[in-house]
Design a protein that fits this description.
- The structure holds two protein chains of two kinds.
- Chain A has three helices and five strands.
- By secondary structure, chain A is α+β, with helices and mostly antiparallel strands.
- Chain A has a five-stranded antiparallel β-sheet, covered by helices on one side.
- In chain A, a hairpin with a 5-residue loop joins strand 4 and strand 5.
- The longest helix of chain A has 16 residues.
- By secondary structure, chain B is mainly beta.
- Chain B has one domain: Hotdog Thioesterase (Thiol Ester Dehydrase, Chain A), CATH 3.10.129.
- Classes of the chains: A alpha+beta, B mainly beta.
- Strand 2 of chain A pairs antiparallel with strand 2 of chain B.
Amino acid sequence: MGWNVGDTHEVTVVEDLKRTQIVQYAGASGDYNPLHTDELFATKVAGYPTVFAHGMLTMGMTGRVVTDLVGAENLLRFGGRFTSQVWPGDDLTVHATVDSVDEGVVSFTLSTVNQDGKEVFSGYAAARA
Amino acid sequence: MVAERFPIEEGHVASFARSIGDANDAFYGREAIAPPTFVQASAQWDPDYFLRPKIGQPWFGSGKEPTGVKRDRGAGGGGGGTGLHAEQHYEYARPVRVGDVLTATVKPGKTWEKEGRRAGKLVFSETVIEYHDQNGELVVTARGVGVRTEKPVEG
């Protein structure tokens, strides 16, 4: 694939995030923190309005856009910050912008936003071009 | 997460890929590679992972009602209790493949504090986990930052 600096790839990775998907992620990842799946705990004990997704679920869904673009075997670096919580019912869209193509390595800036345009994950990735 | 043995299994990789909504063929089958964030699931192989109910021990999640059980304060790196996952970074020497048997070793990182606008005092702690394969080769380096807050954070 030819890469053009400045190109942005925009992919909606989830619409109306289901509580069951959060449960799926808890089971597969082994992170059973009740904040993510236990409404009573999240509201009555921890003081949140409801359960919320693991940051790593958001990062996993973001990574899907990257590996679809570059090929999963070519990834060199992937990281970022969790900038806002993701709640059941959220829609998430990933924006992956080509920053540079240099010495066979393509670098991206990643921004995952919710249905209100609020950023929930701010990151980067690099892969063999 | 410390795991002396983290065997990369086809079914585990497939269930993880499904959970992140990823239908990429590369992640399914006997020759599958793992999605980039899969090493987080080494938690399943950490005997002491604090966010998994332990057989025969109290669990801090609710039953009919909240239990009032206080959770163990685990090491930083991921979220937990009133702790949240703030950052995660990976470097890959090669993809993780079904059939690999990885070893996860933890190196404690820095700890620092910040005054937050919404959540009061924030205490950040960094954890670096190195994943080596069955030949002793480094496959993935994972650097996580966890944050503990004084108050719940919304939005």
